[in-house]
Amino acid sequence: MTRDDTGERRGPVSLLTIEDVWKDYHGTSVLRGIDLSVEAHEVVCLIGASGSGKSTLLRCVNLLETVDDGAIYLDGAEITDVRVDPDDVRRRMGIVFQAFNLFPHMTVLDNITLAPRKVHGTGRARAEEEARDLLARFGLADKAGAYPDRLSGGQQQRVAIIRALATRPRLMLLDEVTSALDPALVTEVLGIIRELKEGGMTMILTTHEMGFCREIADTVCFLDGGVLLERGTPEQIFTDPREPRTRQFLKSVLDARRL
Amino acid sequence: MSGATRVKSDRQLQRERLRRTRAVRSGTVATVSTIVFLGAAAAVVTRSPGWPRVQDSFFDPEAFARAWPDVLDGFWTNVQIFLIAEPLILLLGLLVALARNLRAPVFFPLRALAVAYTDVFRGVPTLLVILLVGFGVPALNLQGAPRDEVTLGVIALTLAYGAYVAEVFRAGIDSVHPSQRAAARSLGLSHGKTMRYVVLPQAWRRVVPPLLNDFVSLQKDTALVSTIGVIEALRQAQIYAASKFNYTPYLAAALLFVLLTIPMARFTDYLAARSQRRRGQ
Ligand SMILES: Nc1ncnc2c1ncn2[C@@H]1O[C@H](COP(=O)(O)OP(=O)(O)OP(=O)(O)O)[C@@H](O)[C@H]1O
Ligand SMILES: [Mg+2]
Question: Domain ABC transmembrane type-1, which positions (chain B) (predicted)?
């Protein structure tokens, strides 16, 4: 905590700071005091067994869930404050889920320009121009007028990511964006994430693709039963994990790969 | 360490306090604005020039007390009609909806009949159906045909509402994604079994709110059977109103209908909110 000139309490200076966050469902805690800070341009990868709380943590950051203790700061301001407008916070983040959740009754272009136009007040012409730029950048220029059900899974997921990008978020949250796709389509979605990293986007992502995680992450966090058990560089986590549980998890993933 | 025994931090306690004060504040705002609104509405009505006359003919406590026992008595007839008609309507509606879903060519006559039935009975005003059944069926002089007005009323309402309910069921069945049907058929389930175990249970949850809405409407429409001579709440109120040229008994009947429909309406809201929550996750 630092204090600014007015003496008002200011939060930490990282882009995102998660401080001792707890989340309970029906009396059991699925997040147990998570501490994590994310710097600008950093890519953080959350790994851990199914049910360890990765999605829940992302949902808390996006304020889709209210935390049961602790606090989360974005750009130094507390977003878990009761008086904060969640819509205002979400406007500054993009989140993409495993299921693409594109709006089936709108074209790709309308899906992408909806939030810029209706939430951020961008004019139609400019919003569409920017959307077309994004589509071209990610190899989907010819799909602007198509409806989602005419796209392959990989294309749909790329559109979902572009839709989240169109509002120029400070932070992108990606929750297992490749697990609903078959391997051939995974590569194209991972390509988009790689490009985002090169563009300097700050991201938190969860994935079961350990190879990709190792390649893309600046920081890898291992969650186990709602506890952030270990955090380090990909190099350290994947070659020399400190915690026995981490080692066990990575071994089980490797074993599964060999099958 | 488990969630239940965890000690909350000061930050969390303060947050919860703040949440409570905000809840109290919005509760207060809601109460105050409701009182102000109702007060203003009452002031406008009671200050209108015609109010004394309206008060005499619609809000006469004496007339209310005199008519109340008989109107209430008549109202039980409405409740009975409603309770008997409701399951019959559900059954008829479901059968018609299922008949419309039969695809095999042998069932063509059945399907055509179902289509004709919904087309006709959704098009004819309920009041007309009641009059036609109420006076038409006894006039046929058929052996064993019912002559009792309540029974005829139930039959007429069942026919009229069955057509609506069949359409509600059909919409519900159609709203279940085709992939569900395909999945069930791929497991070797027959058309009937697919309907019974996979499609209908999913459709059912979606049709409950619109069905309840139709039933609220049915509760009110039981008053229409007064036209074929059933002495129910509306008819009783009419009798009193005519003898004293005072409309207060109608108010008594209206009050009873409202008291019956409000719980139903809240129950519908509750179910709708619950399915909303389920889908939200
Ligand atoms: N809405 C909810 N109600 C009750 N329990 C929930 C709810 N959402 C999640 N949980 C529970 O919280 C725990 C963490 O779930 P979460 O979805 O965060 O896991 P995850 O790490 O994302 O798993 P996966 O890798 O399978 O996606 C699980 O035990 C889950 O059952
Ligand atoms: Mg998850």
Answer: 75-268
Decide: A47 and A40 in contact? Cβ < 8 Å.
no
Which of B2, B7, B8, B12 would best serve as a mutation to test chain A binding (most A beta carbons within 10 A)?
A: B12
**Among B31, B47, B63, where does a domain finish?**
B47
Nearest to A82 among B1, B2, B15 (CB): B15
Ligand 1 contact, A54 CB (< 6 A): yes
d(CA A28, CA B246): 64
Angle between helices B200-221 and B61-101 (to 10 degrees): 150
Domains by residue range for chain A, with CATH: 2-258 (3.40.50.300)
Whether B169 and B39 share a structural domain: no
The tens digit of pLDDT for each residue in B134-180 reads 998 888 888 888 888 999 999 999 999 999 999 999 999 999 888 88
CA-closest candidate to residue B81, choices B134, B29, B22, B10: B134
Q: Is the pLDDT of residue B125 over 80?
A: yes
**The pLDDT of residue B10:** 92
Residue A12, pLDDT score: 67
Give the Cα separation of B281 and B37 in Å (integer).
37
Dist. CA A62 → ligand 2 center (Å): 14
Q: Min CA distance, B236 vs chain A (Å)?
A: 53
Q: Which atom of ligand 1 is nearest to the CA of A176?
A: 27
In this prediction, the residues of chain A whose per-residue pLDDT falls under 50 are 1-8
Q: How far is the CA of A226 from the centre of ligand 1 (A)?
A: 10
Instruction: Report the half-sphere exposure of A33 (CA within 13 A, side-chain side).
Output: 8
Q: Is A56 in the pocket of ligand 1 (CB under 6 A)?
A: yes
Please report, for chain B, how many H helices and E strands are present, in that order: 11, 0
Q: Which domain holds residue B270?
A: 54-278
- pLDDT at res. B139: 87
Residues 6 or more apart whose CB falls under 8 angstroms from that of B153 comprise B81, B130, B134, B222, B225, B228, B230
B23 contact residues in A (CB cutoff 8 A): none
From ligand 2's centre to the CA of A79, what distance in Å?
A: 22
B99 and B179 housed in the same domain = yes
pLDDT confidence of residue A259: 62
The band of B130, judged by pLDDT with boundaries at 50, 70 and 90, is: very high
Question: Are B31 and B148 found together in one domain?
Answer: no
pLDDT at A258: 65
Torsion on CA atoms B230, B234, B238, B244, rounded to nearest 10:
130
Among the partner residues B3, B15, B22, nearest to A24 by beta-carbon distance: B3
- The strand pair at A219-224 and A43-48 is best described as parallel
> Between chain A and chain B, how many beta carbons pairs sit less than 8 Å apart?
30
Query: pLDDT at position A115, please?
Result: 87
